[in-house]
Each structure stands twice: as C-alpha cells, then as structure tokens.
Specification:
Chain lengths: ~270, ~290
Amino acid sequence: MLMEFSLLGWWRVVLSAVAGLAALFLLAPLGLLIALSFDSSQWLQFPPPGWTLQWYAQVFADPNWLASLLTSLELGAVVTLASVLLGLLAGFAIARGSFPGRETLRGFFLTPMIMPSIVLGIALYAVFLRLHLAGTFLGFVLAHLVLALPFSIVAITGALEATDKSLEDAAMLCGAGLWEARVRVILPAIRHGIFSAAIFSFLTSWDEVVVAIFMASPGLQTLPVRMLGEVRQNLSPDIAVVSSLLVLGTLLLMGLAAIFNKDAKR
Amino acid sequence: MADQISLSRAAPAASREARRRRARGFAPAAPVLAFLLLCFALPVLALLLRSILEPHPGLQNYAALLATGTYANVLENTFLISFIVTAITAVVGLPLAWFITVAPRRLGRLVFGIVILSMWTNLLARTYAWMVLLQDTGPINNFLIWTGLIKNPLPLYGSLAGVVIGMVYIMLPFMVISLRGPLAALDPAMFQAASLCGAARLQSFTRIFLPLLLPGLGAGGLIIFVMSLGYYITPSLLGGAQDMMLAELIAQQVQTLLNWGLAGAASFVLLVVTLALYAVQARYLAPHGRKGH
C-alpha cells in the first residue's frame, strides 16, 4: 500500500507535491546559473533585461581562467595516476595479505575520508611551509593524494575481494611469477574497480577547494580556488559562465555514465 | 611425460612459495603506509600538539575556546546549524527518496537524475547561485515582494537562514542516496498485509514504514551532521560574522591571526566529535552492528 504509487490514495498528492518542490529546489539554482551567464545586466538582474554572449567571450579571452583550468586538469591527472598505483599496492596487501594488524591498517588507510578537510588543510599547510612545498605543484599533488587515496583503496580492495584468489594461483601454477600473475591476470579482472578508483580520485581532486586554498599561491590556482577568489571579491558574471560550463560538463558526464552503464548491462 | 613431472614438482614448490608470501603480504602496503604517515598522520598529530604547546605548554587554548564568549558562540552555532540542517534534510529527503522509489519508472529516474546532477555540480557553482538567489534584491526577495507577501526584503544573505538553506541544498542528495537502499528493500506485500489486517495508511506509516527506515535515516543523518560540523566554504560565503562555524574559526585563526595553538585546539574538538560520532555509527547503525536485535 505505502510502496505502491497507485495505492497511495491522497497521500500520493502530498508525496508528489513535496517531491516536486524538492526537485524544483534542487534544479532552480542550476537553471539560474545558466540564465545569469547570458544576462546582459552586469548586476545579475533576474529576470534578465536582455541576453548577451559577452561574458562567455570575456571568460574565454581571460588567460587566468584557462590557466587555472589547466592546473586543475593536470593536478587531477597526476593525482589519479598516483592514487590508482598506490591503491593497487594497498589493495593487494589488504585483500591478499594475511599479516597481523591487517584490519587496523585498512581502517587507518580510510581515515582521511572522515577527516574534516579544514583540519587536514592547515595541518599540511604548517608542514609544507617548513618544507617549502606550500604553493608548489608537488605540495598540491601530495595533499590531494591524501584525500583521493581512500576512495581508490575502497574501490580496488572491493574489486580484489570479489575476484577469486585461485585465478592468481592458477596463473602461478602455469609458471607466472606473483607480480606477473597480478599484472596480467588480476588487473584485467578488476578493471571496473580500477576505473571507479580513477573516476573518484579525479573528481575528489577536481572538486576540492578547502585544502586547495592552503596549497595555492597567486601563481598556482586550481579552478575552484580561482572561483572562490572571484566570488569573494565580486559577484561578477564570469562566475556564472564558468559555473554554467561546469553544469554542462556534469550533464555530459552523466550522459556518458548512462551510456556506459547500458553497455555494461548488455 | 617430462612436462608432467616438472609440473608436479613445480606445483607444490610454487604453492608453498605463494603461501609463504601470502602469510606476509604486507610489503606492497609499506609505501602507502609511509606516505600516509608522512603526509597525513604526522602533520595532523603535529597540529594537535601545537594546541597544548603554543604559545607555551598548557591547556590555555582549550580554556580560551570554551570560556571566551565569541568562541563558545561559534561552537554553539556549529552544533545548532548542523542539527537544523540534518533535521530539514531528513524531513525533505524522506518524501523525496520515497517518491523516487515508488513513482512511475521514468518520473522516478528523472527526479533522481536531478538529485545527482545537483550533487555532482561544482560546490562553488552551487554556492554562488545561492549567493545571488538570497540577495536583498535577488530573485527570491523580488518574487516575495511582487506577490505582496512581504514589504521589505528578508535578510536572507549573510544570515543563519541563508547558511541553513545553502547547506540543506548541498546535503539533501546525500540523504536521498542513504535512503534509497532501505526504501527499495521494503516489501510492498508487507503493507498489503497490514492493510488486510485493518491498518490505516497512517498506522502503517508510523508502525511499519518509519521503524524500518530508522537505521537508514540514522546513518544518513549522522553522515550529514558530521559533514556539516566541519563545513567551511558554504557557511563562510552565505553567513554573516555572527553565524561563524568552527571550520571558519580554524581558518581565520591560521590565515589572519596566525594563532596556531587555538586553531589546533579547535581542530582537536572537531576531530574528537567527528570520530566519536562515526564510532557511534559503527557500533549501532552499521548493518553488522545490529545483529541480535
């Protein structure tokens, strides 16, 4: 009765109304961003007095936006690569090893996930200041790697635990060394886990701003850091343009994920 | 024949070798452990140590945090805002997730798509949208004045209400996702049985539906509460000075006052509460923790 839409009676009306309003609440700000990016008024009037592409032209002509976009992409790529490699090492130890303290180690590897970003941010900032790593690309990579690694370890360990250990043993019986078996037999078997490890690692770095504030320097800013700086100074239409492009990017990714899922099911 | 012999000889040797290696198996984790000790555990410990060592050894930073009016206000604010945000996400998230589960397939998927789209959109883009929406001359106030409901704009931007709205917006998808599994696990036949036994909808709702969803609500609520406690960007952009939360206080102490001792103490408080709440969840709310209940 409660779990069948047609049998909900007048509850259905209430439920649909609340859900509709909640969906509107979630969608409206994203729609507003897109409307504002074409708003001809510099003061973000809504509804817009007229439409223009001038803010898009302005953003594309600004080398700083492009530079921070490239920084974000580059950082995301390096963090993803390192995170998957370390995630594989940790995954093999946790899923295949049997040493004392294994579960403690698993717990420790996952703690950065629940660490408030602000605490990690200033803790690393203090250390990196001493080591002259603050404001460097390497410092950025190390900081984001701490945040990305737990997601990679969860995805890869999960995939390894779901894969039959005897695959490895069989490969070794056929004369492969331990790591040859792991690379040539196990890696292809857990490719989905590796893929999600990579996606989560990249998105963690791509969307991260709190730790990034403390790692950035005026010459080295990721896209979110630059956006934050702009938002704090003035509510310029530039941000609406960059935000709209990010919403569009998210939509494209969701479309790709839907297609990918359909293919995987077939 | 020769092959067979060499295989039968090699096999026990190889499996013994494998067993010996697996008995250890720790080696690959060593670089990961070293990295996380150096770039995570030690820096955090060093920060916490500073809270009792700077400016001189003692507990004065903790005393200042709890006894100074402004700092105590920040602590109170942090818990208050996190609690309100958690409560609202639960009240709105439950019907939303329920609708997504029971609505006709296409409609449910569309609404879930909206939830995911908002969750995956850059945090700053979303917060910026709310900064515009909540202004005195923003769309919300303009609309309310146009309808004649209010004469003067509501002080939304730079207020507690603004912080709560912005944070609910960000946390709501997490609640929906936490409730989707528990909702999908509810068997429609159970409610049919209840109705056959004469239960009205309200009775089914309060006596079957809610109790069965309580663990999911608890788990989602806890995650949202803990995340809210440490939230920095959204409150700092949408709130006023009087709505400061703990994470902003920590950032301010480091960035403008260079008071690392107090920042360390505030971090310690945040960390202890976070870990304690996760421990509660692991003990009482995680599925394996409920065995025998």
